Structure formats: C-alpha cells, structure tokens
Amino acid sequence: MDQIRVTVWNEFIHEQENDTVKKIYPHGIHYAIQEFLSKNKDMRVQTATIHQPEHGLTEEILKETDVLTWWGHIAHDKVDDEVVKRCHKRVLEGMGLIVLHSGHYSKLFRTLIGTNCSLRWREAAERERLWNVEPSHPITLGIGEYFEIPNAEMYGERFDIPTPDQLVFISWFEGGEVFRSGCCWQRGHGKIFYFRPGHETYPIFYNQHVQQVITNAVRWAKPVVRISDYCPEVDPIEKIEAREGEYGKAGVRQQF
Ligand code: ZN
Known about the structure:
alpha/beta; Rossmann fold; 8 helices; 9 strands; globular; binds zinc ion
C-alpha cells in the first residue's frame, strides 16, 4: 500500500513564548498533529516549521508531500512569498491542503481562495457545537450528527470566503454566533479543506473528533493526479481543411 505522505506545517511561536500554550503543546502543535496522524498505517508524517530554512518547505520536501496541513497565527506576514508561491503551485498541480483554524488568514490560503478570508472572533472559552451537515462526505466519516468542544475560541460569520464546493460542518457557539467550520474547495487539481477548530490555548488537537476529522481530511485530500502547468500549442488530431478563402489563415497552418 502506498502511504500518504503528509507534511504538518506549524508556525511554532506561541508554544515557545506562551507558558499556557507550552503546557498544552510542549513539543508544539505540529508534534501533536503528527502524533495522532502517525497512528494510521496508511500515512507517513513529517513536520516543518517557520524556523527552518525555507520554512522546511523546499522543492524537494514538497515534491515528496501528498498532503500539507497548515497552522499559523501571528507570523503570517513572516512567511516568505517564494515559499507561498511554491506551495500554491503544488496545490494547483494536485497536492492536498488542510488549513487549520487561524490559518484562515495565511498568505497561502488567501491566495488560493481569492478573498480576504476575514471573520469575527472572541476568546471566551465558550462551548462550540459542530453540526455535521454532509454525513455522506468522506471527511465526516465516523462523526455523528454533531460533536462538541467544551472550550473554544469563537469564530463567527461573515467568513469572507467564496461559497465552498462542499460545506461539511456548521458551528454554533454558546454566545450565539454560527460559522462555516468545514469547507471544501478544489483549486486546479488540488483539494483544499478548511477546518475551524484549533486555538492554541485550548487542548483542541487532543479532541478525538477533531483528530478523526483531520485524519479523514488527509485521506480525502490526497492527490488524484500530479499535473504541472503547461499551455502547449498542439497539432490537430483530425485533418483540418484549409479555409483561407473564407476565413484567412487564422489558426490554420500552411501545411494543411
Ligand atoms: Zn485562535
């Protein structure tokens, strides 16, 4: 069986600077995600962070990546434009991308999606209920009608995104807001999944439902094809009669 090669990308700044976050994710959010994904025999998982040369996302690494997961928050603007361009190109060629939580404002997501991706937010440790609105979708496999996160940061509408190709989760928050929490798009040959949960001061990535959704999303987002961009001039398959008399030479080669 071919394993899905996953690269878990994390900014890895809060975990080193904030004691609360450090306590929850002593080795970083990327480590926690790698840990639960690695339990799946069909996945081979490596990590990369902003601190590595080229943020750990070199041509070679991306060539060996089927699905990239992205967590970032306070350093979106520190991500090198060349790296963003490279990841963007790989998605269009077929690489899957899973954008988590505050990754909604990352350069990569905003470039691929094409809108500002802004939203309303509040940090009040409130209850979130995520409704599964597409029970037949591969990403919601094993999730019931809904699941809850006892303490979450609120993200509310309007979420400035283009209408998703498929919307699989809608969140309700204790404070009254709703949010499109699980959104699927296709860009070029690549699949993109945005998943809302994941605030750094709550132990969200240890929640079994969150882990199940991300695991499902990796399987859903794996590439079907890998096709580099090209725009060739081509010879016709059938013989085309010359029509100089009627239409001039536009588009018709001399030898025909
Ligand atoms: Zn957050």
